[in-house]
């Protein structure tokens, strides 16, 4: 994100020479002092689990973005130089670790840059069109009203852990608080030119948590009234990284929703509306090497059958993920295998599965079935959800 340095970096990488330096490269994170997990790179953040924010995209000029459609990435205007043909950007999707061999990459073909960017109207947003769709990609719907432009937001990115630091190989996440326009404008002379109708402020007034260089263009998001993620902001700028009394500034997505949707339609894609979410947040203990346990979700108000791309979001805390067998059980008792047991020693299963449930009636009680098939390790179902 942010500050004059960040803007200069992002604009500079629009230059061919710098794009070439970044294109296709995963930038290594510094090792931790004990040689274990790499140091997090969002200031005050923690490492995201694979699949936790599946619509996140890393762009090769050193910016972030989110999947708007299967072929369009929403990012910041200051990350690109102009509207027009552009084949120099590489988008990386589907991973937390940029060096993960399962990563999906696409080259760009075209960029649409907000025509009101750098005017009194504001509008730090842009759309990158990919050479071909990422079929089945998870999408992040955009906010179309200001109803969710308050509260606690989430941010994620591969940016720096400190002001002026290097960029990250791993996706980091953090929560930031809404900061009203008056408080933001009065926090530091830097914010005197804030555009209230076009920008949102968020962060921690005490400092310590923020987006930073390299997070530009990434989404700021929260749950809507149906429990689904919705994008309310785009990492834009700010005065340094995580300084006290210096919040981050984000593009107010709802202000530009109509323009973003029109640009997407012109480029050949219509943003997906928010899905209807049904979830169970009650913990269910998983016995060690014991019988299967179930967690229920009752679906109502959905006409006809479930979709062919039913999203099953799973958050299971367990000390040895390979012990677990996970199934989705439809209302009629049909079972869909989500995960087999394996030799994986990594903890927890936090991911989103896609199930072709088009033969199933949507309404009724769906069950998540989880069984620990090996001894010694334990855990519990923390939460799970269905998105229609």
From TrEMBL:
Residues 1-28 form the signal peptide. Pfam families: P_proprotein, Trypsin. The keyword Signal applies. Keywords: Disulfide bond, Hydrolase, Protease, Serine protease, Signal. Residues 42-265 form the Peptidase S1 domain. InterPro entries: Galactose-bd-like_sf, P_dom, Peptidase_S1_PA, Peptidase_S1_PA_chymotrypsin, Peptidase_S1A, Trypsin_dom, TRYPSIN_HIS, TRYPSIN_SER. GO terms for biological process: proteolysis. Coiled coil: none annotated. GO terms for molecular function: serine-type endopeptidase activity. Residues 269-388 form the P/Homo B domain. This is Secreted trypsin-like serine protease. It comes from Saccharothrix saharensis.
């Amino acid at each position: 994100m942010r500050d004059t340095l960040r803007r200069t970096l992002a604009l500079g990488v629009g230059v061919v020479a710098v794009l070439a330096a970044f294109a296709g490269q995963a930038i290594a994170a510094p090792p931790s002092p004990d040689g274990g997990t790499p140091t997090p790179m969002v200031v005050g953040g923690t490492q995201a689990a694979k699949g936790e924010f599946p619509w996140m995209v890393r762009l090769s000029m050193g910016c972030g973005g989110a999947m708007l459609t299967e072929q369009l990435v929403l990012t910041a205007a200051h990350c690109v130089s102009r509207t027009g043909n552009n084949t120099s950007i590489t988008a990386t999707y589907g991973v937390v670790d940029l060096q993960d061999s399962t990563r999906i990459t696409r080259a760009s073909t075209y960029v649409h840059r907000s025509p009101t960017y750098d005017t009194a109207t504001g509008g730090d947003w842009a759309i990158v069109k990919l050479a071909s769709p990422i079929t089945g990609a998870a999408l992040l719907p955009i906010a179309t009203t200001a109803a969710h432009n308050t509260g606690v937001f989430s941010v994620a990115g591969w940016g720096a852990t400190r002001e002026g630091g290097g960029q990250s190989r791993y996706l980091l996440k953090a929560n930031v608080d809404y900061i009203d326009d008056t408080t933001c404008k009065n926090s530091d002379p830097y914010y005197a030119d804030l555009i209230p109708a076009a920008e949102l402020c968020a962060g921690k007034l005490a400092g310590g948590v923020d987006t930073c260089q390299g997070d530009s263009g990434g989404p700021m998001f929260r749950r809507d009234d149906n429990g689904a993620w919705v994008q309310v902001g785009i990492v834009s700028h700010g005065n340094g990284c995580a300084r006290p009394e210096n919040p981050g500034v984000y593009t107010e997505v709802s202000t530009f929703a109509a323009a973003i949707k029109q640009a997407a339609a012109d480029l050949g894609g219509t943003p997906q509306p928010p899905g209807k979410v049904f979830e169970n947040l009650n913990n269910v203990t998983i016995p060690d090497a014991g019988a299967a346990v179930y967690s229920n979700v009752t679906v109502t108000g959905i006409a006809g059958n479930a979709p062919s791309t039913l999203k099953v979001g799973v958050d299971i805390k367990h000390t040895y993920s390979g012990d677990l067998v996970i199934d989705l059980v439809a209302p009629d008792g049909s079972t869909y295998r989500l995960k087999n047991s394996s030799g994986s020693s990594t903890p927890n299963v936090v991911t989103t599965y896609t199930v072709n449930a088009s033969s199933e009636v949507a309404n009724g009680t769906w069950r998540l079935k989880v069984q620990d098939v090996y001894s010694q390790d334990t855990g519990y179902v923390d939460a799970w959800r269905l998105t229609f």
